[in-house]
């Protein structure tokens, strides 16, 4: 089976001459949640817009479940749902009319049972006869998702799904996205919230200046680039790291009152035990200890800044 999304050498130069995408390669397998992270202007929306047929690329290829978006556009587009950031139209329409119209746009036969289930799953069923303009911001966002799912797409793009929503709705959205994945829908989301990527994604892609600089399983990314610090508060300050402990690469901080050990979060757990034993042998008394772990945010900032340097 071809991957649900295959992007190769994708390039976009806008008519202004600005190069928004510089040869992006990306393969997405069915059933994953993929988070695309990047600073403002990195090219996220351009990428999504090309896949959805809203912007023409200037180079490269995109295939959705094997259907080329240029030569087999209809088939490719019918497999995609797009949840944009803003609800622009249909303010006067009812929820039901909007959602069933969206389904019709893709030439799908009527299936009221499916739409009913969709609206129930999104807690919109009670609101089905209300005009969209009368709904709360959170409900409007749910309508956007219902619209995007009305034609039963297999690949769902969510462009900053939780920008500006409250914590409760954000949690609801996350639950919903996970449920969608369980039904076999592949989800690609863009987000500025690192926490969101950390919470939701199976894989993470980092895009900056039109280049995908990293694609990695979230867990692997965290353990590969994540660092832990073990901070030992000493009973007595040390003027320097004892000779016998030099091989651990320790650092003294806080005027010799703290000894800091930096290690990969994935491994070297055994070394912590060795270190503590050797400290005891060297007669270094420990008053207290704590650990800190770099977050995805630290990793992201390091990556993006590193790329710019
Ligand atoms: N129609 C256009 N003509 C010229 N330049 C454009 C056009 N659309 C976007 N750009 C530029 O391309 C770059 C990438 O924009 P894009 O919207 O893809 O970024 P983004 O990663 O989605 O950013 P954000 O996180 O702010 O939404 C930006 O520098 C933007 O100014």
UniProtKB/TrEMBL annotation:
GO MF annotation: an example: ATP binding
Residue span(s) of domain ABC transporter: 5-234
SUPFAM superfamilies, per database record: P-loop containing nucleoside triphosphate hydrolases (SSF52540)
UniProt signal peptide: none
CDD domains tied to this protein: ABC_DR_subfamily_A
Pfam families with a match to the protein in the record: ABC_tran
Superkingdom of the source species: Bacteria
InterPro entries, per database record: AAA+_ATPase, ABC_transporter-like_ATP-bd, ABC_transporter-like_CS, ABC_transporter_ATP-binding, P-loop_NTPase
Entry keyword set: ATP-binding, Nucleotide-binding, Transport
Protein family according to the UniProt entry: Belongs to the ABC transporter superfamily.
Protein known as: ABC transporter ATP-binding protein
């Amino acid at each position: 089976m071809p991957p649900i999304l295959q992007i190769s050498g994708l390039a976009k130069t806008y008519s202004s001459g600005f190069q928004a995408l510089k040869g992006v390669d990306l393969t997405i397998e069915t059933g994953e949640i993929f988070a695309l992270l990047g600073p403002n202007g990195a090219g996220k929306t351009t990428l999504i817009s090309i896949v959805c047929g809203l912007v023409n690329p200037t180079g490269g290829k995109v295939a959705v479940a094997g259907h080329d978006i240029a030569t087999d556009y209809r088939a490719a587009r019918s497999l995609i749902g797009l949840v944009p950031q803003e609800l622009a139209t249909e303010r006067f329409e009812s929820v039901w009319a909007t959602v069933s119209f969206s389904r019709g746009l893709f030439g799908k036969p009527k299936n009221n049972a499916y739409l009913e289930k969709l609206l129930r799953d999104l807690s919109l069923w009670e609101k089905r006869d209300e005009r969209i303009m009368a709904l709360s911001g959170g409900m409007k966002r749910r309508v956007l998702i219902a619209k995007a799912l009305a034609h039963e797409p297999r690949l769902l793009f969510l462009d900053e799904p939780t920008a500006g929503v409250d914590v409760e709705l954000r949690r609801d959205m996350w639950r919903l996205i996970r449920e969608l994945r369980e039904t076999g829908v592949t989800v690609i989301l863009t987000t500025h919230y690192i926490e969101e990527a950390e919470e939701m994604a199976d894989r993470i892609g980092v895009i900056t200046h039109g280049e995908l600089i990293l694609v990695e399983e979230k867990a692997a990314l965290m353990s590969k680039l994540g660092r832990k610090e073990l901070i030992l508060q000493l009973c007595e300050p040390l003027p320097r790291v004892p000779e016998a402990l030099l091989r651990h690469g320790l650092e003294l901080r806080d005027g010799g009152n703290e000894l800091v050990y930096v290690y990969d979060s994935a491994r070297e757990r055994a070394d912590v035990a060795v270190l503590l034993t050797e400290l005891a042998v060297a007669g270094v008394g420990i008053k207290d200890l704590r650990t800190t772990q770099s977050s995805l945010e630290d990793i992201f900032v390091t990556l993006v800044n590193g790329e710019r340097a």
